[in-house]
Amino acid sequence: MKSRIMLALVAALAPAALSAQSNADLQKQIEQLKIQLKAIEEKAAAVQTVEERLVKVETKAASSNINWGGDLRTRFESSEWHFNPYQQFMGFIQNPGPGPATGMPMPVTQQVQAQDWSNSTQWSTRLRLRMGMTINEHAKIMGRLTMYKIHGGADVPTFNGSPNTVQNSFNSAKVPGTDVLRVERASLVYDFPVGVLSIGRQNTSDGPPFEVKDGGERQATPQALAVNAMVDGIGFKFHLDNLGFPENTLLGLCYGVGYESGFGGGGSSKTSAAVVGFNFSGATMANPANASMQVNSIGSLKDSTVLGAMFDMPLLFQIGESIQSANFYLGFNRMGNLTDIPYGATNNFPVPATPGMGGMPATQFVTATNNLGSIDQWTATWKHKPTDNFTYFASFGSITTHPNGKQSQYGAYWDFPTVMPTGYPSGPNYLLTGFGGLLGDATKSQTANAYYLGMRWDPTETLGLGLEFNHGSPRWWTYSPAAGELTEKLGTRGDVWEAYAHWQFAKNAALRVGHLNYKYSTAFSGWHIAPMAMENFDLAKNPMLQYAFPATVKSTYVSLEVKF
Question: What's the predicted TM-score (pTM) here?
Answer without folding.
Answer: 0.84
